[in-house]
């Protein structure tokens, strides 16, 4: 530094001496000589448009003005000039220079641009040639005034990716170098300033002013920052401290601000911080007092600490027009090592906050900013609308309700993976929700009233009471939440155990109205419901699709991926059913599993309310009677819980009493064929059979339909595409046979006598209603049909019900497209 200053001072002295002695000669000959001499002393090229000096009458004070000055970078970085200036003026006392007092009275730079950069090793402004002078003579150098007028300044520090751009209409700098100390004072104004670090904009297009004084000791390698003032927009900061930059570098800087409005403070924060607060408005006062302190050499990093004091502040949720007023809070943030956020902590004590009937107070503590441990100890009495506003949901709109919270709440959040740490939830206190009402948009539900009383300690959480009323549905629940610390976990093991009763539940109302929303919800979660449950449940007036039950009682079980009622008693369809019902995830779909014992069920209503079991061959218009028996059904449901018919299996071991088959298509066609109109409406006392449905086909084993006029023995298959194949034996009394002209057909050996004195015809029916073929077959193919049906059924059941699991059986048989996951 001393060597460089000696060279610079010598150059200035020579310049001034030459200019003062040869004024006349200068105007015609000296300019090229001066430019040449300057370039000899510097390591970069300097160009000057014109040079002028003050008159001899000002001697020994001399002023030199350079116009259109450019100085190249010592190391190209910006690919621009290091310095460009429309005008550079220099003012010196040549006698003081002659005496060895290296003092420049003034330098004025107008209309300039300065592009400065520091690299890992070196910079772009090392413009003075190295000196061979090894003298250690003490040297002093001073610039009394360096003024920058209307200049653009740009600076980059590439190792830290720090950048600064700005325009200064006026800056004044003084510099004095004596022995090992450099004294520097800066007073500057910067407009449209940009300051960024690692791509994050911390000051973006803001006005900035600085008034500071620095002492730089090059021997001991430290910088002392005298009490300084920095103003960013309307925010005023005071700072002071010391920075050591040698081998054992460290930093110790303190800062504080005058009483500043929260609006002003927020206005200077980077967009990355404020964009998440775009829906919030803060008005009030805040005082900051902080420091940056610690070692910086090697792998050491300094610490950061700031205390804040918020007074008379209003917080408003803009789009909800909801606010907390008069907030009084104090706290601090500590980061012992700015590169290790796991050592950081923060505290905030809210002494007072209110908004109308809303009051809030308590202590918030956060430790470990990488995996934040968050605790709250306080009280809140809030409007439900105020609380919902902070959830940023648009699907629920409240009209009334209050939330009262008192206790200690804690959780741990994994910021890297954006999930709660498992089993980290703790709560010791109470939550009371009173008279919550509002509207849920999708699914469309009108919440008339919701009340919750919940209490917890570190071991258990108790639902003292939960009462709800929406649309026309009412219900209540009491119980406990076991393993509640995992309640908010992605794979929660929390379980609600208790008693629940619900009246007028219409499950159809709970489905979303938008298929895309429902698909998105199903795709984003593998869970049918968000929590496990073991609830003794009673439903009255239950509705699902078209099915209606007067009552359903049983235990509702769920492990989040399945819901079941293993022993539910159902009063419906004018009878009683005891069943085991379950739904579970099945790959991307769901498996509905039903095993039921039915007693005295109205079969017409059964078919009608269950949409004829998704087939149109035998419907509620074709059957009457009272049904009892056992039913097993396995149905694959898609994401919208609609049945996938190729993946349907059902088996019904049934008894129908006092029944009738009315206008059943096969019997209607048979009626025309055999000329017996009574077949269009066949009444019977008792009908027993075991019917199965699989592979989109109804399989009907041999069964007997008997009444006083005729007996019908029937077996066959009927597909969902309405292709039928039946083998029938029709026996009629002699009177009915005579009326139907069967005697002539008997002569043709199509009909034969039976043991009861009547006539029997053997008939085969095959095809679709549009192309149905019916023929007599005296030899009868009943046994062949029966054997074929049994063989096909056994093949299916071997794949479905073998020794291995159901899924494994599917893979061993060509039913992957039916039962695959």
Write up this protein.
- With 821 residues, the protein is α+β, with helices and mostly antiparallel strands.
- Among the domains are: 219 residues, no CATH class; 144 residues, no CATH class.
- It is 16% helix and 56% strand.
- The protein is built from 14 helices and 40 strands.
- It has a 40-stranded mixed β-sheet that branches.
- Helix 1 runs antiparallel to helix 2.
- The radius of gyration is 46 Å and the shape is elongated.
- It starts with a helix and ends with a helix.
Fraction of residues in helix:
10-25%
Q: Quote the average pLDDT.
A: 81
Termini separation comes to 78 Å
Question: Strand share of the residues?
Answer: over 45%
- Total beta strands: 40
**Cα gyration radius (Å):** 46 Å
- Outline the biggest β-sheet: 40 strands, mixed
The number of helical runs is 14
- Low confidence ranges: 515-525, 799-821
* General form: elongated
The SS-based structural class is: alpha+beta
In short:
With 821 residues, the chain is of the alpha+beta class. 16% of the residues lie in helices and 56% in strands.
